Here is the input.
Amino acid sequence: QVQVVESVGGLVQAGGSLRLSCTVSGLTFDEINMGWFRQAPGKEREGVSCIKWNGGVTLYADSVKGRFTISRDNAKNTLNLKMNSLKPEDTAVYYCAADAILYGGGWCPRLSNRGQGTQVTVSS
Here is the structure.
């Protein structure tokens, strides 16, 4: 059984930083691509970032490029997302997605392999 668990998000002022992490069990972590996506009220789901199983490819949404950094520690089955220069528009529930699908220059999450989500709120 696949389990994906995100760390607690938080409330931060605009311009601040926050780090999310996610652990996975039930899958061979070092063989799967991982990603983060977010969902804000009234907005479509947005793929934030994805990282290949070996860390060799990272993808970012244009909205977070240059501000967010995705990384992984395969020895600890852990995925990280460092978020800097946060903006109010980054406010959303963030989900970790295991065994994401990489294709061409994009990716999509397997929604069946997502965590419960963690709230990130950025105040202006």
